[in-house]
Amino acid sequence: MTNTLFDALFGPHIGSERPFLELPTGDVWTYDAFLQRAAQIAHVIDAAGLRPGDRLALQAAKSPWALAVYAACVQSGVVFLPLNTAYTSDEVAYFVRDATPKLLICDPKSEPSLNPIATQAGATLLTLSGDGSGGLPESASAKPTRYETRARTAADLAAFLYTSGTTGRSKGAMLTQGNLLSNAEALTRAWAFDQSDALLHALPIFHTHGLFVATNVSLLAGGRMIFLPGFNADAMISGLARATVMMGVPTFYTRLLDDPRLSRDLVAHIRLFVSGSAPLLAETHRAFEARTGHRILERYGMTETNMIASNPYDGDRKPGTVGKPLPGVELRIAGRNDGDDNGGDAESGAIGEIEVRGPNVFIGYWNMPEKTAEEFSADGFFRTGDLGQIDEDGYLQIVGRSKDLIISGGYNIYPKEIELLLDDQEGVLESAVIGVPHPDFGEGVVGVLAPEPERNLTTAAIAEAIAPKIARFKQPKALFVVNELPRNTMGKVQKALLREQYAATFSASS
Ligand code: MLC
Ligand code: AMP
After folding, report:
1. What's the 40 CA to ligand 1 centre distance in angstroms?
2. 8 A C-beta contact, residue 395 and residue 323
3. Average of pLDDT values for 333-356?
């Protein structure tokens, strides 16, 4: 049976005793050990009644087991839906209702709150904890260690990744096997990955960066990963001593720069540092080069499109730019005001919305045909909502966003989602949520509240009331009360003015 993605990423490693995952405990999972666990999980998936095309949702701590669930989904043709571990049960309930997974895997600690959600959706619930215990590993241990891979083509679905949006309602981006494989192939070549690579992996595995970029590239090249549960300065420093490549969000780089142990000697043997998911300040790029001698390679991507553009491996890596489109990816800057499908390119050097077409681009949002249609031009380019400009050497510079989005420590936060929740709180007339400079996360979330007439608002009480509803990283790190929100003559809240006014909110803590 052929299965496009499995045959390329996993199949060649069956039976291989080469190391795949090196853990902080010193334990090493070989490729074959990993694939045996994946096969056993695939049998559990079958036994739970899932068939190719059905969905499996996973909200579990980063671990080799959690990664093996991804491999098992690919092997059994099941659509993998990884969820941020910070999501509250209210948030998970939405994804379960929307994607209707037949199997939900969660941490044992979340079982009491997620059990009713699974039951209501008719899904089986299994547990998996970060140390590899739980109902899933227990069931898997009794299963055969080989599994007959299900047939799948490049056009078949591989994963749903949810991204929030300007309306506040999250959308499931449907990614095919071909989307993931084409990008993994382009990146492996562009960044010269091979079997000898050891990638320092401290990113979460529920997003594109840690899952499809870092992991798929390592798998395709047959390299190994130094697999950390998250960013921890000590573990990073010791991992750097053994790695050949590191990938991270800009916060990783600013935190490493704050650590006196980061030195030229420590990283002299490393061949590549990659940054993405959020803007890397040119200043960080320069400081990192001054300290280590390495020029960080910045690239640009999105959940819906995988990776779009990259600075060169060989050649000039320009700070403040994200390089050139990857091979096979078409990129254009739409002319101002030509959101209407004429496909026109902006004049050279002009600023406009970045639009993308290629085998890397997703096929649409789950159950949202109208939303999908809105985001594509008539000639099939996806509108990213990012504003860009191409310089005289053909390098893309991201100069802003037409979407109202905050990127904090590499996580996307849509203000609307938080505003809807704040507006619901007693005594709140309306709210505006903005992102302002934050020394650690790049942008930090600030909420500005206007009370109903004659009402006094206590920000601490509001913060407490929204806490169980949304993930901690989305919650405003500061709340302010004003008499009324500033509006322009059209009645629109002037967020730019608020961003200016609250710009220094987090600067004192730097
Ligand atoms: C944690 N917190 C955050 C946060 N991460 N707040 C805002 N933004 C974030 N990103 C909060 C916690 O809720 C907690 O709050 C406090 O900060 C400390 O938490 P922590 O768990 O100790 O933080 P830490 O583990 O150090 O995590 C920070 C981080 C992490 C930057 C390492 O957020 C991270 O790994 N980010 C990477 C995200 C990523 O992979 N993005 C890729 C998306 S894919 P309190 O109040 O309880 O103390 C994509 C496409 C592409 O964008 O191009 O790649
Ligand atoms: P997500 O939807 O989580 O995949 O986030 C995608 C968004 O992250 C993009 O639309 C950009 O706004 C942003 N992004 C990713 N990489 C970069 C980068 N290198 N520089 C600036 N923004 C980036």
Report:
1. 32
2. yes
3. 71
